[in-house]
Design goal:
heterodimer; A: 3 domains; B: two-stranded antiparallel ribbon; 3 strands
Amino acid sequence: MRADWEVVIGLEIHVQLATKSKIFSGSPTAYGADPNTQANLVDLGYPGVLPVLNKEVVRMAILFGLAVNATVARRSVFARKNYFYPDLPKGYQISQLELPIVESGEIHITGGDGIEKRIGITRAHLEEDAGKSIHEGFNASSGIDLNRAGTPLLEIVSEPDLRSAKDATTYMKKIHSIVHYLEISDGNMQEGSFRCDANVSVRPLGQKELGTRTELKNLNSFRYIEKAINIEVERQIDLIEDGRKVVQETRLYDSDKDETRSMRSKEEANDYRYFPDPDLLPVEISDEYIEIVRATMPELPDAKQARFIAEYELKSDDAAILTASRFLATFYEDIVKATDATAQVAANWVIGDLGGALNRDGLDIGDSKISSDELAGLLDKIHDNTISGKIAKQVFEAIWDGEGSADDIIESKGLKQITDGSAIELVVDKIVASNPTQVAEYKAGKDKLIGFFVGRVMQETKGQANPIQVNQILKDKLK
Amino acid sequence: MSLNKNQAQHIAMLARLKLSDDEYAESVEKLSKIIDFVDQLSAVDTTDIIPMAHPLAAAQRLRPDDVTEVDNRDHYQQNANEVVDGLYLVPKVLE
């Protein structure tokens, strides 16, 4: 970002709600089905059909509203947003305009400048998704798949409170984490369950009025959002410094060319002629129902992170990593409960070894090849000195590769730690006897050579000798 | 005349209607009459009246989140002009 300029960003995040059926029809919402096998009369926009609102969608919107400290509307209204596009067979999208289900929320993020700040959430409203158009491979035609038409979306609109691309991604990750914790969306960005449009403008530092904004469409990865916003900011500043003007328009980010370009849509005049949908009555939500939903609120990421720091005495960074996903946090807590090892040791293993293995194999924590019980058992083996931490890494890999339980692997590979003092003494004697030069140097004051001796003993015992005992015995013998 | 021709053309464009000059003249006149008729409502003082979203004094009924529809694609696609691999084909949208 260039000095003298302030960046102003607001995000619209579309979250696909994880319901079994669509928002207004009983068609399934599963991803990846054969084209149009999940599109029925209501989704296809046949005349004479009636949309009926899915109760689960309302519950999920309320839960989100409560999680971001927002007002849940006791009465909200669906409206028709009119435009023509082949993947919208009715000619309108059912959405909410004047009375959305959620209003005036907020979350707190640590901004790109390291300072905690409040990001306002203007509103979150319910709407239906459109279908998909496929433009490649049909010559003069486009193919239309309406399986996605009618999938429930919660559109979360932020205030223009974000001041950098980094702010924007941090905010988006936090919303992502919240909807995941609430289990209202799978948040899968590749499958389009979590997408984002960004409204971006710049203004000279200190200026009050907002600059002209452009809208960046359909940013579907955290990395692209950051890149797209940074590139768009540069473009706008260049324009203004050149004495030209930013045009209010919709732009697409092209990740191959790393540029944004105008969509030059012919119907740029966004004249959607919203009006209340006569097919749907106002949605009324009682105080009692809101309380029923509130009672199901899980512990949210911020609260969990604070508790991990207080309860397990974890470093703030570690607690942040462990609470990034609800599943990972549970996995970690299951280990802490089951093992005698300290919470920090468990954290090191989950973040370091387990995290590394998951990364390497491209797996999610849900697909971990070691269970929380197995990992807890392994940590116990280190804790009770059956094996050393180093050997434990070997055992971890063996469990990961499906070679059996920690006990079996330690037994079959003969990895048990040597804690028998007299056995270690024998090895130490041998090493001392065969390295007279180093012994002399050590005795002459070259203390660092202790590492050399420890290394030799560990080599001789294939890493199985208890390193603390080895150290002690060596020091006694070399006195 | 509460509607002018430019507005009528804009409405026609939004509705994807292609009208001749004669048809424009006629639509402007008819639509203006409709608007004037509805405009009488503006005479009512609505300061303290909550906007009505629906004429029925009832709330939306909700349905449980159950899948009740089965795949009827072949049946529905008998209505389509052209279908390939289960996709409805339409004139190319992107140039």
